[in-house]
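for the recovery benchmark. tokens below, seq after
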């Protein structure tokens, strides 16, 4: 079954199922998703997304950052989420930073792209 309104460029359609959940606009939203996701969920996302990171970034680099088409913007947000979960999967094997203390970063504004 084909998604009538795909969120991602066609060549990244294998990630479409993850886009609705992980293509999040802000770092805070990505952080919250990471902290509330199971390791099995993050592992599945990482396993699907990590192998195509270079291709995804090459696709996004075709456009000016401040004028990305919606599908490329969603793809870039998905890349940001893969990066957000990478150390959890590769090193810590849990959503929280190991030995990270109780440090909290509260941004007053979000970075824009």
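predicted aa per position
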């Amino acid at each position: 079954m084909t998604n009538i309104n795909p969120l991602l460029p066609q060549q990244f359609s294998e990630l479409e199922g993850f886009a609705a959940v992980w293509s999040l606009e802000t770092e805070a939203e990505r952080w919250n998703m990471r902290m509330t996701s199971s390791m099995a969920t993050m592992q599945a996302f990482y396993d699907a997304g990590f192998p195509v990171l270079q291709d995804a970034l090459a696709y996004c680099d075709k456009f000016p950052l401040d004028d990305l088409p919606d599908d490329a913007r969603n793809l870039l947000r998905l890349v940001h989420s893969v990066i957000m979960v990478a150390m959890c999967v590769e090193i810590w094997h849990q959503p929280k930073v190991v030995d990270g203390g109780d440090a909290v970063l509260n941004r007053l504004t979000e970075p824009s792209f």
